[in-house]
Amino acid sequence: MTLLFSKVRYFEVMSKEVKDVSKLQPHDRLFKTLFSDPQNVKDFILIFLPEAITKHLDLEKLKIISSEKFSTFEKSKKLLDLIVECPIILDPERKVQIYFLFEHKSSPDKFIFVQILSYITALWEECLKRGEELIPVIPIVFYHGERKWLLPMDLVELFELPEGLREYVFAFKYLFFDTNEVSDEELLMKIALSNILIFGIYLLKNARRGREYIRRGFKEFFRMVEEFEERYKIYFREFLMYVIEVGEVDEEELEGILLEEGGEKVRSLVDKWIEQGYQKGIEQGIQQGLILEAQDMVLSAIEVKLGYIPEDVEKKIKNIFDREKLRNLLREIIKSENVLEILKDL
Q: Is the pLDDT of residue 326 over 70?
């Protein structure tokens, strides 16, 4: 192991600003780290949502809303990814609030409508409890999985119904953002608009695809960052941790990429982190990468046995961080004739 990475292994990767997401899966953690920053959310809305929506928004007053504000979520243990509140400008004299509900997915989920609808219902129940008018909710599904998303985006499309009945079935749509539908060239061209957000999206899309994709992304990122201010340091640590956990590169390859593309800018940043007393970190990420792999194997086995992965089961599996427990669970699932009975005990 070379000098730079022997130091990097002792970073405390998670800063105080992102401490609350440190126990999440790598994909969820990077998503929540990116989208817990109001500036990144504003940039995403402006860059990727249609003008028919953005022209009505007062983005200067956009706020990230903590799910802790909603007692319904606490009681039902709903794991909402992100709620954003933003005023809509009806006319120069009138504004009303709207919620954007972000749901992050790294694999297709055929029960996405049920999940979104439960969140919207919970939000509206809170409005009623506070004696307020219902606030309109626009769901946004952020997807970066390897499999193609072939699911409908309009609830009514789930049902085979004659035309006379369709109009009476509850219907709603979600906005869908798929990193696979945005070319790497288009993403990297947009990096000047919001380098942290776009590079984070680029990594969510490409970190698993190999060293040349990782190199290309870091090259553009370093080109756009003249100096590592505190905000960049926080995200750079998170980007490194994500690549180590899910990327198809080993430590020496990643170190080579960082030094070749970032040069002394990277080496001096590492030295500063060491001087500031960051004492632990990325080696935890490596261990988490092994746990992530074990979780994926369990989920794949469940999907093979049942033909689908129940949403509540997926969340429970992703909250198991004991590798030995995951291995034992995998053996039980493979051997079992009644997988649902095993899953009940989780």
A: yes
